[in-house]
Amino acid sequence: MDYCSRAYLLGTNPSTSFSDLVCVDVIVSILYHTIIYTIVTVLFYYFWFHKCIVPAIPILFFFFLLIMTLGYPARLARAKSLLAASHNNLHRTQSIMDNAYATWYFIG
Fold this sequence. Notes:
- By secondary structure, the chain is an all-alpha fold.
- The chain has four helices and no strands.
- The protein has one domain.
- The protein is about 75% helix and about 0% strand.
- Helix 1 packs across helix 2, helix 2 packs across helix 3 and helix 3 runs antiparallel to helix 4.
- The longest helix is centred in the middle third of the chain and has 29 residues.
- The two termini are about 15 Å apart.
């Protein structure tokens, strides 16, 4: 799971360039989360509606893949925007990003 931490840090550090997001850690994180979200959605649907949605699995997979792939540059763009708005205060930007993402997505 170290790759997820490294991918998170890459995506929230405003000094990261967008081209730096094209790396093994981010790609593995995208694939991992896409697979998990697809499985959870299928299981949830099965237990809730008692129906299997096997024909929809590829559609769900590509939907989550698209969302995850667009999410990394969007999060980095937000970090860069926050840095500019906070007059290049990197500590403040990291604090806002951590409160927004680490608090909700990495509770534990």
